[in-house]
Amino acid sequence: MSFVADVAGSGRELAQKWGRFTLFTSRLCAVTPRALLRPRLLVEQVHNSGAQSLVIIMLSGLFVGMVLGLQGFDLLRRFGSTESLGSAVALGLLRELGPVVTALLFAGRAGTALTSEIGLMSATDQLSAMEMMAVDPVRRVCAPRFIGGVIAMPLLAAIFSMTGIFGGQLVGVTLMGVDAGQFWSQMRSAVELRDITEGVIKSGAFGLACSAIAVYEGYHAVPTADGVGRATTRTVVTSSVAVLVLDYMLTAVLL
Amino acid sequence: MIPATDPTARDGAGCIARLAGVAYAIGGRSVFDGLDIEIERGKVTAIMGPSGTGKTTLLRLITGQIRPSAGRIEVDGEDLGRLDTDGLYRLRQRMGMLFQNGALLTDLDVFENVAFPLREHTDLPESLIARIVLMKLQAVGLRGAARLMPSELSGGMARRVALARAIVMDPKILIYDEPFAGLDPIAMGVVLRLIRSTNDALGLTSIVVSHDVQEIGLLADCAYLLSAGRVAASGTPARLAADPAPVVRQFMTGEADGPVPFHYPAPDYEAQLLGAEVPE
Known about the structure:
The complex is a heterodimer of chains A (255) and B (280). In chain A, 87% of the residues lie in helices and 0% in strands. The mean pLDDT of chain A is 93. Chain A is mostly helical and 255 residues long. In chain A, helix 3 (54-78) packs antiparallel against helix 4 (85-123) and helix 6 (137-175) packs across helix 8. Helices cover 35% and strands 22% of the residues of chain B. In chain B, the strands form two sheets. Chain B has a six-stranded mixed beta sheet, sandwiched between helices. In chain B, helix 5 (155-167) packs parallel to helix 6. Chain B is globular. The interface between A and B is medium-sized, with 14 and 23 residues.
């Protein structure tokens, strides 16, 4: 009986959280057009979420590409088709690894920064002060950060894929001796526009999900040190799960 | 008492805020039950009471941040219960609030913090915004600190910047939440005089939440003492100081024990010690 009650309680709590998240996201979307009228704030947030994540994105992209180059070379060698390494690396990065790994890194770096920043603003009464100055904190604080994240994510994913391809080329061509001409020509012939579109759609969807989760958790964080810490952890966990679930759903639809 | 610089500013021309039969509860615990308060226009009104009596909650009710479960709250002729979000925001443009810690926006410097409401609500040219901000900073003595970041300010300075920001839109009502908490005597004296002079020079109505009896005695025109969710006493600070009611006496004289007990409710002391019972 107690187990049933616990399950029912958890289900109700989950439904309440979903309801709150949906309401908050609707409010966020409603104020987004007005937030777009303040380009200076958006540029600032694209810089915070995007430019400040560049080093980690490029470094990770490079090593993911290098690993892809090694694994791909080993696998393709068994089938005697190492010249296809370029297309394997490019397709893997553009369609799958680029958007997914970028989103996971974004959740860990920019998402946590957004949550803790907004949570601390709440804990130090800055959001209440804005409300008292008749300024809607969702419009002034959350919306620019949300839009900034949505704009930054596809750009970061593109940069990730680009450095990844460079890493794959570095290992495949420079270390393993794959012919450079074959590497690039195979890539050019295999990669189609729809592969790039798939990556862009995925990274756009991940950007929406990760940014919305990060600002939601920050805005609803319990205004204490412990509360902000917990909200930051929830951002990483929820965003990561959301990215992986969304990835499967989008892949199933786009294939 | 600190003298008013302009006696006409203190002529009560009716009530600017009125709470009638207000009830409010958090998590099933009643904070207010039938609270009646009237804030007179042009005066400095203090809200006092021991910790946990809901002074800050009262400010949140007056500013419409939370809604009462019963009763009516009127501020500047508006019934808060009938206002939608836009109406509430329009009303708040006629109010200023100074938070206990200043609540300055930490990513903006002093100048930008004070300019923030002007940038959000007006289309004034930059040169005019700069002049208004510098005038307000001059009024609180911090014109020279315009380019400092909030992290570089002392507690007293942060509160003065917050005061400059609160008055930058020329509000009708200014609300202070524990403005003296944690300040050294000099900073406290500065804030005390600023509250009085700002109120009188700008013809404002000030509501000050505090439990600093001495400072309120110097500053306020009238005071309300809250206890157990109701108004335990009201009147001039001198009248409160002479009030014989035990709850008022305990607060005004700072007695450790009385109607507000020193000990938090606990099981029998002797039985607990002898039984070596560990509190659960």
